[in-house]
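Service request form, structural biology core

Requester: graduate student, group of Dr. S.
Request type: structure prediction, single chain
Budget code: on file
Notes: please return the result as structure tokens.

Sequence provided:
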Amino acid sequence: MKKIVLLFMALAGALSMMADNAYTYLTFETTDGAKASIPVESLKLTISGNTLTADSQTFILSNLSRMYFSTTDETISGIEEITSATLDEATAIYDLQGHKVSKEQMKKGVYVVKTKHKTYKMIVR
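Core staff response, request fulfilled:
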């Protein structure tokens, strides 16, 4: 527990030394890969037992894999931007009812696009 407290004291010191605003977010990554970025402008960290609270976000300390400063918001929303090249690589496209559709059949709505390397959620407007 002393190591964790010392770590967060060092983190608080680093926050105060970031006066030039080179890093505008503190990003927390959990063991399941989820990320949450919090602006450091008025960041307040609180540790209570095995829980870390950063502004309105709460984390269980044992579930945190790492935290780091970043210049962009790295919060994972589950929806990424896809390019037309990604659509060309699609091995399958499904609508939310689970029906397989072609690129030409895509209308307004949400789709699941599978490629060889990754699966994406896509919104067509």
